[in-house]
Amino acid sequence: MPSPLLQIRDATKIYYSGGFLGQKKSVVALDNFNMTIGGSPATITTIAGESGSGKTTLANLVLGFIKLTSGRIIFDGEDITDMDSDQLKAYRRNVQAVFQDPFGVYNPFYRIDHVFDLVNRHFSLSDNQSEYRDMVEAGLNVVGLYGEDVLRKYPHQLSGGQRQRIMMARAYMIKPKLIVADEPVSMVDASLRASILDAMLRLRDEHGISFLYITHDLSTAYQIGDEIYMLYQGTTAERGTAVDVIDSPQHPYVQLLIDSVPVPDPTDKWDVNISLPSEEEMRTAAAQGCRYYPRCPHRMDKCLEEQPPLFMMEKPKHEAACYLYEEREVAPQELSLVENRPKSIAAISSRSRNRERIAAAVLIILGFALGVIIALNREPEIEVRTVVETVIVTAVVTPQEAVATATAMPTDVPEPEPAAEEVIAPKFVIERDGAADKGSITWGEDTVGEIESADDRHRYRLAGIAGETVGIKLITGGRGLSGTGFFSPLMTIYAPDGSIVFAFDSARRSNSGELTFGATGAYEVLLGADDRGRGVDAYTITIEGEKPEPTPLPTLVPPDFVIEREGAVDKGAIVLGEDMVDEIQSADDRHSYSFEGVAGSTVEIKLITGGRGLSGTGFFAPLATIYAPDGSIVFAFDSARRSNRGTFTFAETGSYAVLLGADERGRGVDAYTITFTAADG
After folding, report:
1. Cα Rg, the chain, nearest whole Å
2. Residue 539 is inside which H or E element, if any?
3. What is the pLDDT of residue 528?
4. In this structure, what DSSP letter does residue 23 have?
5. Above pLDDT 70, what percent of the chain?
């Protein structure tokens, strides 16, 4: 499992105001916040909430612009709070920012190319001018811009959307692992927002760059976000996938926030009789309990006692911090990376007051020392004695010593067995019934199609080789077909035995993943829209991997006798490794079976008289002829024997027809068992 890209553990940020001698006030901007962004695949993690909820504070902490009051931020395994200047420079190369104001980040006296020149000099991207220009052009192309159109212009000559996309191109040129986008579309005209959001999606899907997307716009969070954290006064009110949280909000605050989104219906009136306490009252009324208590219509006495933990909702990874769900299981705590952290905000405030007292004491001591020095200069005969205070330090047992002590103690407790890896079933499955057959998918080649309605489903065959791993990519659009840019069709892959082995079950513009084939055979790839109709769109499927090389077939000697296809009774599909038992009852009786062959794979074919509950004569099993998908004859048992065996290598992937019957003399009118087994593992 890939290690996390970003881990935020028990992050707390308190802002202080007031003079040294006056009363010092504090505002908790972020309170014991936890978050994890995975390393692969790239994701867009949304931080949403009203103004003052701590979104921008979180962005500034991740970017290293401000310091934590307590907690840890771990990026790629390293704590950013302990970095020196060289490490911080490397960190800033991996974590870039796109800010809210597309006007304030540019120097109006320089042309746009100056932005890229600064990046090149600061991070030493390239000494070769031609290579550097190619890098700039590639970055601009990613966001839909062209160098000749923008590089020699001044910032005021570009639109807000162009300026924001240039900042994304600048970030892309450095090839970061994470981009912190702090409300990148809030100051951009609505007509330009789609271009910026599309640039974010392309950077995520095509270049593997994750985003920490800060916004108060729930519509854009719903369109492009993978996970979402809903903040309220520095705490997590609700978190989960963006679709789950916005479609089915559980926390009263999130419900109110989503209900506040206007709908295009003049008869749907908002409730104007809303009485809210002041922001100061809201921040201080529930300092030890639920921050939403002053505004919550469901508040209880317990809400004032302690901040509610995150409780697990019905959907996986969907969690809400509200005592309305107290009967549900508490969400697992993310592993703390902080030793001896303050247990509460009160403890942090107490520590701050202690620092103030220590500072005052230091000033008093300095004043006293200054007086002593002056007195010494005036009265040299006075003897000054140095008073040494003895400090008794209580021994502290380190974690390493505790572990050593514990391991030295005799114990007969058996070692716990490792837990079995949990296989998570897909949330949404594309069913096989009623799907239109679209043929085979070839490794390394694009397969393009279009889901035209919510009920439309497409089925493809994919050649799988046991032990081989392929990359799977599914995006909107294709050759001559334009996608909407947001929701590609969903995908489910069935193994030869009918089990589901892979699924893209989230509505995204682009999905990518890997599949290791557990068995050799023909896999079914099903595409369609989800239960809400998202995925009615054009698409392109790409299976990334080396195409299996088929084993050369020996020269086939034309069979003496052929079982014809006309008039044969369809007996269904032959399953690899399973016996098919039946009976040829007359000289004119013929049976037809289908078998999904995979190019390059080899099977052993066994055909004998008799079977389960059926007795053969013991002399002549039916004869067999195998037809390729193109109708040519590729294999035959054309001699009348009690038992026939042979091996066959498939030259192409597709559905092969297996015909059984008697010869022209009637030999083969008998019960039989036919078995196909893998001859190549």
Report:
1. 35
2. strand 538-544
3. 92
4. P
5. 77
184-211 pLDDT, tens per residue? 887 777 767 777 888 888 888 888 899 9
Q: Which two tokens stand for residue 325?
A: 């769900």
99-to-11, 29, 110, 196, 602 alpha-carbon distances in Å = 22, 19, 19, 13, 58
Looking up tokens 């705590």 gives: 333
Residues 6+ apart with CB under 8 A from 324: 252, 298
Helical H segments across 302-428, by residue range? 345-378, 399-408
* Matching residue, tokens 């995520």: 204
Rounded to whole angstroms, what are the CA distances from 16 to 12, 110, 356, 365? Answer: 13, 38, 12, 26
pLDDT of residue 348: 44
pLDDT confidence of residue 334: 63
Which letter, b or e, does each residue of 294-308 get, where b requires 16 or more Cβ atoms within 10 Å of its Cβ? bbbeebeeebeeebb
**Both tokens of residue 37?**
């962004």
Long-range contacts of residues 319-327, Cβ cutoff 8 Å, at least 24 apart = 319/238, 319/239, 319/240, 320/237, 320/238, 320/250, 320/251, 320/254, 321/235, 321/236, 321/237, 321/238, 321/251, 321/290, 322/237, 322/250, 322/251, 322/252, 322/290, 322/298, 323/290, 324/252, 324/298, 325/250
Question: CA 517, 520, 522, 524: dihedral to nearest 10 degrees?
Answer: -20
> Token pair for residue 272?
């104007």
Q: How far apart are CA 320 and CA 308, in angstroms?
A: 9
DSSP codes, 551-607: PPPPPPPPPSS----TTPEEEEEPPTT-EEEEE--STT-EEEEEEEE-TT-EEEEEE
Q: What is the pTM of this model?
A: 0.56
β-pairing verdict for 235-241 and 319-320: antiparallel
> What is the per-residue pLDDT across 528-546, written as a single tens digit (0 to 9) for each?
998 878 888 888 999 988 7
With residues binned 3-state (H G I as helix, E B as strand, rest as coil), the percentages for the chain, rounded to 5, are: 25, 30, 45
- The residues with which 33 forms a beta bridge, in sequence order, are 11
Would you give the end-to-end CA distance of the chain in angstroms?
27
Specify burial of residue 160 (Cβ count, 10 A radius: 0-12, 13-18, 19+). middle
Distance of CA 611 to the CA centre of its chain: 51
pLDDT computed for residue 433 by the predictor = 87
Nearest to 103 by CA among 177, 188, 22, 172: 188
Low-confidence ranges of the chain (pLDDT < 70): 1-2, 18-23, 102, 191, 262-287, 333-424, 478-486, 547-557, 612-618, 680-681
What pLDDT does residue 383 have?
A: 39
The C-alpha atoms of residue 627 and residue 556 are separated, in whole angstroms, by 13
Q: What pLDDT shows up at residue 376? A: 52
Q: Which residue has the tokens 């640039």?
A: 199
Strands 44-48 vs 227-232: parallel, antiparallel or unpaired: parallel
